[in-house]
Amino acid sequence: MYRDKTCGELRLTDEGQSVKLAGWVQRSRKMGGMTFIDLRDRYGITQIVFNQEINPELCEAANALGREFVVQVTGKVTERTSKNKNIPTGEIEIIADGLKTLNRSDIPPFTIEDNTDGGDDLRMKYRYLDLRRPCVRKNLELRHRMAFEIRRYLDSKGFLEIETPILVKSTPEGARDFVVPSRMNPGEFYALPQSPQLFKQLLMVSGYDRYFQIAKCFRDEDLRADRQPEFTQIDCEMSFVEQEDVIDMFEGLVKHIFKYVKEIDFADPFPRMTWHDAMRLYGSDKPDIRFGMPFVEITDLVKGKGFSVMDDAEITVGIVAKGCAAYTRKQIDQLTDFVKRPQIGAKGLVWVKIEADGSIKSSVGKFFTEDQLRQWAEKMEAECGDLMLVMSGDAMKTRKQLCELRLEMGNRLGLRDKNVFAPLWIIDFPLFEWDEETQRYYAMHHPFTSPNPEDIPLLHSDTGKVRATAYDIVVNGTELGGGSIRIHDAELQDTMFELLGFTPERAQEQFGFLMNAFKFGAPPHGGLALGFDRFVSILAGLDTIRDVIAFPKNNSGRDVMNESPSTIDQTQLDELCLRIELPKE
C-alpha cells in the first residue's frame, strides 16, 4: 500500500502514530532550516515538516519538489505549534522520516486552489487538473451523494430503475436530434435520445407501474449557462395516477433532498401558480418568487395622452423597486441600456420616482400630469421613496423584457440570495403554441401530453385555449423539472397528431410502435423528469450546470480538452457511405 492514511483524516488524537501518506504537493515553503510541504489528496491537506538539522538529505530532497509532484511520505504525527483553524487537519503535522517521489509534474498552467488564476477556457482545456481543486471536487461529491439518495428514496416508494436505449429512432419535433450513422444499415441513422419519453410510456404499457432512471439525454441546441448538449435527467413515470398523485410524489422527493443536503425542512406544500398568472405577474413560466416586484398593468391609465409609445402599444406594464427613488440618473441610464441590449431588445424604459417628500419626478413628465402619475403610483402601490419602472409594447414580448429587468433589479438589490430557496409548481400550461412563421400549432411540451379533460371539447373549436395536464417545478427562477399526464387513448392520440399537422402516414412512421402498443391496454399514466445537473447546481449555489459535470462542453458545444467534435478518417466515412459537404462561405 502506498498509504495507510489519507491527507484529510488525521487529528490530534492520532499524535504519536507513525503513518504513511501519498498525494500531490500543493505548495512548498522554506523557513530557515525547515521545509514545509502541504500534501493534498481527494480527502484534504496535511502539513509535512522536513528538518535540515535532523535529516539534511531528506530536507534537500523536499526542497527539490515542485507543485503537483506525486509523493509518498512517512513520518510521525505531532501537534502543531502554530495551528491552522481553516482545515480539519490543522492541529497536527507530520515530522517526515521518509520521502519518495512517485511522479514528477510539469508546472501546472494555473494554481490548483479554490481561488485559481485560470480562466474558463484554460481550466476546461486542462479539466483533469481543474478537477483536483477542492471546490470542484465538492460539487462532484454532492452529485454522487444526491444520486445515491434519490435512488434510495425512489426505491423506498416502489420504483424500479430500468435502463432504456441510447440508440433510438429520430423524431425531429422539438429540439434537434444528434444522429448516428449505421454501418450495418447504410443510409440509415439512429438518434441519441432527447429523453426516454417513448420508452417509459412503453414500460407503463408493459405493466411496470413505477419506473425511474438517472438517464443521459442529448439535444443539439444552442447552449447557455443551464444547458449542455448532453445532460442528465431523473426520469420517472407512474401508472394509474392523476396530476395530483405525480405532484405529491415528486414534491416529496424534492423536499427529501433539500432536507438531506441543506437541512431545510419545507413543512407546507409548495405554492402553485397557473401558467397564465406566471406570465401575467412575472413574464416568465419559471418565476423567481424569492422576492416580490410583481407586474402591474396600467394600459388603461396611459392610452390617449399623446405619448405615442404608449398610445400605440398593446400593453403598458411596470414594476415597483422599493426604496430606489434615490437612484441617480446614471443608474437609471444603466437600467435603460440593460433593457436595450440585443438579447432583451426593448426600445426604452420609462421611470417615475416618488421622492421621500412625496414629490414626483419622471422621464415622461411632459406627457402626463402629476395627478396622472399619482394614479399610476396608486395602482402600482408605490410609496414615498419608491421607483416605478414601466415598459410598453406587444404583450408577450414586453412582459418577457420586463422579466429580465425585474431579475436584474433583484440582483442589484440583493434579493436573490442563493441560500434562500423558493420552490413552486406551475400548472395549467397551454397544450399548444401557435407559430406565426409556419402558421400551425406545435405542442408546448410534446405530442403525448394529455389535454385537461375539461377542455377536450375545445380541441377543434378553440384549439389555442386548451390547457395541458402538465406541470413544472421551479426553484429560484430555474425550471427544475416538468412532466404531464400522458395520452393513453389511441383515438385521442390520433386527434392530437391531426391537430399538430401530422398525416396518419407520418404519425405511423414516427410513432407507430407507441400507437400500436396503445391498442393493447395502455393504463392511465404520467410522469416527470427533474434536471439532475440543475438540481445539483442549485443546491451547490452555482450559476451554471457546467461546474457539476466532470467533463463538460463549452458554449460552442466543444470539449476543448479532448478536441471534440473532430473530423473522422475517410475510411470511416466510406464504411458509413457518407460524404461530407461543408457549407459555402
Query: Radius of gyration from the CA trace?
Result: 30 Å
Largest sheet: 8 strands, mixed
Q: What spatial order of strands do you see in the largest sheet?
A: 6-9-10-22-21-20-17-11
CATH C-level class of the largest domain is Alpha Beta
Alpha-carbon distance between the two ends: 59 Å
Q: What structural category arises from helix and sheet content?
A: alpha+beta
Q: Tell me the helix content.
A: 25-40%
- How much of the residues is beta strand, in percent? 15-25%
Instruction: Give the helix tally.
Output: 17
Low-confidence stretches: none
CATH superfamily assignment of the largest domain?
Bira Bifunctional Protein, Domain 2
**CATH-assigned fold name of the largest domain:** BirA Bifunctional Protein, domain 2
Shape: globular
Overall structural domain count: 3
Number of E-state strands: 22
> How much is the average pLDDT?
94
CATH architecture call of the largest domain: 2-Layer Sandwich
Structural description of this entry:
- The chain is of the alpha+beta class and 585 residues long.
- The protein has 3 domains: 12-103, Nucleic acid-binding proteins (OB fold (Dihydrolipoamide Acetyltransferase, E2P), Beta Barrel); 138-272 and 424-548, Bira Bifunctional Protein, Domain 2 (BirA Bifunctional Protein, domain 2), CATH 3.30.930; 291-416, Gyrase A, domain 2.
- The chain contains 17 helices and 22 strands.
- The chain has helices at residues 56-63, 120-125, 127-130, 134-156, 197-205, 243-262, 275-282, 299-302, 308-311, 329-340, 370-380, 395-412, 458-461, 490-499, 504-517, 532-540, 570-575; strands at 18-31, 34-41, 44-51, 70-79, 92-103, 160-161, 179-181, 189-191, 210-218, 230-239, 272-274, 296-297, 315-321, 350-354, 360-362, 387-393, 423-427, 432-435, 440-443, 470-475, 478-485, 525-531.
- The strands form 5 sheets. An 8-stranded mixed sheet has the order 6-9-10-22-21-20-17-11, sandwiched between helices. Strands 1-2-3-5-4 form a 5-stranded mixed β-barrel.
- Helix 4 crosses helix 16 (532-540).
- 31% of the residues are buried.
